[in-house]
Amino acid sequence: MTSPADSIAALLAHATRQLGDTGARLDAEVLLAHALGRPRSYLFAWPERRPDPAQAQCFARLLSRRQRGEPVAYLTGRREFWSLPLEVTADTLIPRPETETLVALALQGIAPDAELTIADLGTGSGAIALALAHERPRCRLVATDRSTAALAVARRNAGHLQIHNIEFVAGDWLAPLAGRRLDLVVSNPPYIPAQDPHLDQGDVRFEPRNALAAGNDGLEAIRRILRDAPACLRDDGRLLMEHGYDQGPAVCTLLVQAGYREVEDHPDPAGIDRVASARR
Questions:
Q1: Using CB atoms within 10 A of its CB, is residue 250 exposed (0-12), middle (13-18) or buried (19+)?
Q2: Which residues neighbour 142 within 8 Å (Cβ) at sequence distance 6 or greater?
Q3: What local confidence, expressed as pLDDT, does residue 20 receive?
Q4: Which end of the chain is more exposed for a tag (fewer CB within 10 A), N or C?
Q5: 228 φ/ψ angles, rounded to the nearest 5 degrees
Q6: CA torsion, points 205, 187, 169, 180, in degrees to nearest 10?
Q7: pLDDT tens digits along 203-250
Q8: How far is CA 274 from CA 100, 266, 267, in A?
Q9: pLDDT in tens, 142-178
Q10: Looking at the whole model, is its pTM more than 0.85?
Q11: Domain chopping of the chain, boundaries
């Protein structure tokens, strides 16, 4: 049992025991640093310091919510992606490290001084679009999402990061981009089958369902994107889409059947096929 008079070291030890699962210590450190308004390094530099009562109570509340399963990113309102600090809320998917594979693949095909027009579909927090806009400041990014709440988060992230070469547009996938000519379309669409039991487990329970699930086989959104993208892509334009760990063959088959060329699948750092690429 802890009290507001406990030291940082004692609070962390207690919280780690309370959480008791993989990643418990890291979760405890992130939440305590957030409650203190300090970086994690402060915890290691001053383990004997005692948070004031308000800070200790804030940490206790965060710990209780984490024990109920709420994601750390939602509790702190922050997640890093491509070394960019992003605001995240319950209206947005939490950006995941494997999605950086899509960003890296996109950047491989964009010269540093290129002036391309790029669309990010279903942008959520804006993670992918902001990473590309940051790395290729002469490109023009347009990010779509049907959730106005998610777009508000993405716009705030762009403002905080002072990234100005990006436009946010409300609408479903490519629908609001009719008439535009794009050099590249990227997306991390929902791709989990609607009845997958994992949707009711762990952190995923708290994320927006429509950003995770897409029809009985998980490919509904992907089918729509690859169907509609040719109308907006320039000749030789590229399409990059993230997909589920076991969906690579199905997605590549869909791309070939739809008439795309140079269809390839690419692994994430764990060696799991993660991103399909193709040309119009």
A1: middle
A2: 117, 118, 119, 120, 166, 167, 168, 169, 177, 180
A3: 86
A4: N
A5: -90, -20
A6: -160
A7: 889 999 989 999 999 999 999 999 999 999 999 999 999 999 999 999
A8: 10, 6, 5
A9: 999 999 999 999 999 999 999 999 999 999 999 999 9
A10: yes
A11: 8-68, 90-279
Angle between helices 24-36 and 53-67 (to 10 degrees): 140
Task: Select from 93, 105, 4 the least CA-distant residue to 56.
Answer: 4
Predicted pLDDT of residue 229: 96
CB neighbour list of residue 60: distance below 8 Å, 6 or more residues apart:
none
The answer to whether residues 239 and 185 touch, using CB atoms and an 8 Å cutoff, is: yes
Cβ-contact 219, 167 below 8 angstroms: no
- d(CA 139, CA 249) in angstroms, rounded, equals 31
Q: Which residues contact 253 (CB under 8 A, 6 or more apart)?
A: none
Pairwise CA distance, residues 178 & 168, whole Å: 15
**Closest alpha carbon to 186 in 107, 118, 125:** 118
Using a 10 angstrom Cβ sphere, with 0-12 exposed, 13-18 middle and 19 or more buried, the burial of residue 43 is: buried
Any bridge partners for residue 273, and if so which? 267
- Nearest CA to 65 out of 119, 23, 27 is that of 27
What's the confidence (pLDDT) of residue 203?
Answer: 85
Angle at 135 between CA 223 and CA 179, to 5 degrees: 45
